[in-house]
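Memo subject: From amino acid sequence to discrete backbone structure tokens
Action wanted: Derive the backbone structure tokens from the amino acid sequence.
How to read it: Take the token row as a discrete description of the fold.
Attached in line: The record itself begins immediately under this heading.
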Amino acid sequence: MTDTSSSHHGAPGRRWQLDTALAHLGRASAVAAKSVNPPIVRASTTVFESLAEFKASYQGTVFEAPRYGRSGTSTNFELQAAMAGLCGAQTCIATPSGLSAIAAVLGAHARPGCQILVQENVYGPTQTLCEKVLGPLQCRIDYFGSADALEEKLTAQAALIFLEVPSSLTMQMVDVAAVCEIARRQGVPVACDSTWGTPVFFDAHALGIDISLHAATKYINGHSDTLLGLLTGSYEALQSTRAWCDRHGTHVSADSCALALRGMRTLGLRMARHDASALAVASWLQAQPQIARVLFPALPSDPGHALWKQQFTGGPGPFTVELTPCSEPAYERFIDALRLFGLGTSWGGFESLVMPAIPHHLRALAVQPDDGRLVRFHIGLEAPEDLCSDLHEALRHVHR
């Protein structure tokens, strides 16, 4: 998004550019505290002035004021208001992790006999939820790779279409606008895991997405020190999901929300750096003889580049690379030789990471299928020249 409706410390008003909004949204409660940052309010019990006020807090289904600790405190509401403002949405729900946000949306729309259509190659735990939790509930799960394939598989029992742009590990693109148009004609809501682009590079709701999901654990927090999920949309689009969260006790601590608000202040600056560095490193890797291909839609050579240009204004990574044919020991030597890339799950923090790009359901196997050596990189805030130098030294081990 390029601008956001806001006025001083978070109330709706004038139009602001993104970086200005990031600095000022979600600070309404800071005024009373005479501080720059809103105070961290930890509470299980909310105390009311009167019985009438107590009763009023339980009316309706929009929980954006103190009611009980599980529904949030002012710290939670500040983050939710800021995220809704950034996404151009009416409302936001915070959940304990990105996966819990996914589970809430899928769970809220699932019912026996319904059809849920899921984009191919989405995040592994999303597929696991569909197959291990929704499947036994007699939900029909159908996967699709394109808007045309979606239209062929869509039935009258469709309850939800779930996207992830780009898809996990394989980095495949889908025509979001075309998917949303098909869904609109059939009256089916569309949810999208928008973590990769964040609101900075991917305007999900402008493309027609009803519910946008973010693992705020990653870029939005940006410091690899908390778990958090955020859901944005209209009150109507999120009504069933909000009710699901309330019934299932989905709660986020005030501390996690405060950490995400802190990270959000520098989101625009960090995303610009991630974008430039990821493109520089991916372009460098593409030219190395040990690399068969780089899966990154921001590269002009990528099959999804045209769709990426239509839907995104930046490409922060992460991305996947395929090594030229090599043995498993050589693959291990390459990863173990890296010094500036931490070996671990997740991405979106200030530090660079590397991880074998193994589908989630195969990670527990002692011996991995030998169908291509894939590696996923997250490019952090280090100098890209240093990262390329580190990669250069490690790649020497591939065909030693």
User: Anything to note?
Assistant: The first strand starts at residue 3 and ends at 6. Confidence is low (pLDDT under 50) at residues 5-14, 364-369.
